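Running this now, will post back.
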Amino acid sequence: MQRRHFLIALAAWRGLLPSSAAAVDFAPVVPGRRLVFPDDFGAHPDFRTEWWYATGWLKRPNAQPLGFQITFFRVRTGIGESNASRFAPRQLMLAHAAIADPEYGRLRHSERTARVGFGHAGFTLGRSEVWIGDWRLTQQENSQGNRYQARVHGEDFSYDLALDATAPPLLNGRDGFSSKAADPRHASYYYSRPQLAVSGSLSLQGRAEAVNGHAWLDHEWSSELLPDGAQGWDWVGINLADGSALMAFRLRDTSGNRQWAAASLRSTGKIDQIFTPQEVNFSPLRRWRSPRTGIEYPVAWRLQIGQRVFELSPLLDDQELDSRRSVGTVYWEGAIRVSENGQPAGEGYLELAGYGEKIRVG
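Update: finished.
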């Protein structure tokens, strides 16, 4: 998704790229291909689109919570692949970053777009390293691949955060083959790094402070578009308080009903469980209407995964992200609190896409 999230990059570039892009043979996602690390930590430039997505909760020195998000998208355009010029836009990089600050009342958000090349924007094979200018998400060089460094400089915020993993990747779907429809063509390769310990510094309007917290990182790549009839999606990644972790998503049809769904649950014993579409149910509890776009989003939810039922509530309602200057869409993406059986159970991030215009990826 996901993030965040699912095929957001294509939501813009599907409509903007010329028809010559369609003639390119993008690498396929096929069942049975197992993910291999450390190779699959790195970029996969033969595929149409790919993203690295980190979200999390930060605690300030005054104990006030904040949400943070950083996403890098890589898009193979299909343009100029036989052109030797370094200016040919064969690969694009796009990035979003945001801070969810209850005191500010809405997201602080920034975005960047650049063609790959000339050292200004790019990606690395074999380990997670993506960048646009001084924005970077970098996996540290060690055999375990257990530390990521996220550096962002927005207009009114910046951060430099270390994200440390203590467990292997969570493989979503069948060993990392994540279906998006009954047709196996509609799939991605997808893994998560939940329960990342976070430390570092944050600056809001030029005032720096130390922060700590926890985060979730997704890495996903694919060459397929959304299945026919998909209006949008809902996705959530949750770091549960007992040390377990949950990822769930659903694709919605034009009536708002479930078209497809899936979930992955990592228990405290590091046992991973995968759920079928019928075992995943999203039910909205409360809606919020954006004063800027007029879009109405279901910002509070009841989420049933198998026999377990969670309630999701936003850190603040106004976490709408307007990315029309880069990937061309508006969606809701924000920090959430999670409860189970009426008790606090964890924290995570929720993404709601396709509640305004239909996501144009069909």
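The chain has one domain: 8-353. More later if anyone needs it.
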